């Protein structure tokens, strides 16, 4: 049967999702846990290649296995083999042709900025600390310009080999509570570092270095050098993937 | 001059606030940082003796010092000497007779319960994980019975030597978001382990083991054995102290 897992992790101690030589990754830990549990090699197909330090509440992976363990017990059984910073939240049986990347309808990410005079231990792991006061109203205005179908080439880091850099953003909202600014973005797909470059650009708008409607020109330029810096990985969390 | 600091910390790695022999405490770390900064012994007076594993966003301490460092720079200077899990958020000069315990008008604590089938790395440090589904409506109803001036002897652990066990609770509210139940409680003072015993009792009401109006009988009994268990320290955070 084909099993779909939903996985949460704190990315702090991992070199991202995807298996690499000479580096500890989340995929490796999950693969090892599956190998121990099912006593055979398990090949995982992940939905999203989160980078070093990026977190997830809803990473999705799929694998094939024959097992007598009821599917609703699989999370408990895999979790027993995993470190505390990786947790399987759900397991269901899916169709044989289900693919976690190709079948994804949309994904939601959150980028969290702790905007205060002093960092807080409570926000250390999941927020980027930024002490200069940010103008949330301007950031909200700017966020609106990302919504829609655009060529996001200016918001894609080098090293990507995608066929097209056109993506559709369905939602880009900014909330604020207890000193934390949350950029919540949902779209049909995201380019390499896209959310972190959007966050870095929105921060520059929040400081007044750029204007909200600069977003239009940056998108139209299709030039990475026109957008803002890539904001640090620790602020980013993959929230969920809808199918 | 007399300086009042507001301090945040993650309690995970400390044996509580107060200095002890043979154990690392938050007070010790802050005292050491002050000693390094001011090149002399500094005696701190803390507002709240948080227990091992309890966190704070707004612990308050006071000390006497003669220094040329402007008061608004003191947090930066002390933070430079502190580990990442302790942060001074604010420093102001107060009157010579200001006392962080005696002058406190009220304090707010939060107790956080991650109520879900599986724990999340994101909630590991600041929530008590409880997998059995809790009835929040019943917990809310019960929370209301704590509000008012009562003798909370039934909600006080042994080992306390206070003159009176009467305290006034101004607010006890329960919110729920993203699988996390937050008990937020404000009052003119709290007995030893009081918030954790209240949380433990509310959890037992949430499971259906007790009824909401049992709170009335438990308070009236003045008998610790009638209340629920003391919920684990990791879920508790001292939010703020108002003067």
Annotated CATH architecture of the largest domain in chain A = 2-Layer Sandwich
What is CATH's topology name of the largest domain in chain A? Alpha-Beta Plaits
N-C termini distance of chain A: 19 Å
* Strand content range of chain A: 25-35%
| Low-pLDDT segments of chain A | none
Which CATH top level class of the largest domain in chain A fits?
A: Alpha Beta
Q: How many runs of DSSP E, i.e. beta strands of chain A?
A: 10
- Largest interface, and how many residues on either side? A-B, 22 and 22 residues
Radius of gyration of chain A: 19 Å
The coarse overall form of chain A would be globular
Helix/strand order of chain A, N-terminal first: EHEEHEEEHEEEHHE
**Main sheet characteristics of chain A:** 10 strands, mixed
CATH homology superfamily name of the largest domain in chain A: Pseudouridine synthase I, catalytic domain, C-terminal subdomain
Number of domains of chain A: 2
Chain-averaged pLDDT of chain A: 97
* Share in helix of chain A: 10-25%
Give the oligomer, counting copies of the same chain as homo and different chains as hetero: homodimer
Number of helices of chain A: 5
- Helix/strand class of chain A: alpha+beta
């Amino acid at each position: 049967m084909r099993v779909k897992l939903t996985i949460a992790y704190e990315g702090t101690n991992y070199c991202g999702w995807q298996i690499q030589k000479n580096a500890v990754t989340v995929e490796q830990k999950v693969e090892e846990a599956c190998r121990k549990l099912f006593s055979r090699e398990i090949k995982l197909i992940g939905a999203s290649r989160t980078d070093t330090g990026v977190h997830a509440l809803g990473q999705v992976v799929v694998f094939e296995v024959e097992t007598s363990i009821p599917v609703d017990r699989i999370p408990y059984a895999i979790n027993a083999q995993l470190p505390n910073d990786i947790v399987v939240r759900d397991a269901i049986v899916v169709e044989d042709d289900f693919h976690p990347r190709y079948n994804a309808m949309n994904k939601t990410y959150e980028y969290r900025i702790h905007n205060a005079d002093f960092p807080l231990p409570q926000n250390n792991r999941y927020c980027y600390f930024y002490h200069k006061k940010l103008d949330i109203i301007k950031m909200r205005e700017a966020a609106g310009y990302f919504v829609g179908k655009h060529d996001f080439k200016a918001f894609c880091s080098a090293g990507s080999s995608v066929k097209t850099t056109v993506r559709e953003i369905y939602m880009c909202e900014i909330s604020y509570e207890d000193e934390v600014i949350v950029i919540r973005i949902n779209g049909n797909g995201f380019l390499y570092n896209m959310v972190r470059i959007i966050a870095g650009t929105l921060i520059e708008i929040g400081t007044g270095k750029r204007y909200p409607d600069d977003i239009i020109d940056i998108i139209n330029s299709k030039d990475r050098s026109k957008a803002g810096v890539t904001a640090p990985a620790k602020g980013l969390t993959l929230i969920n993937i809808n199918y």
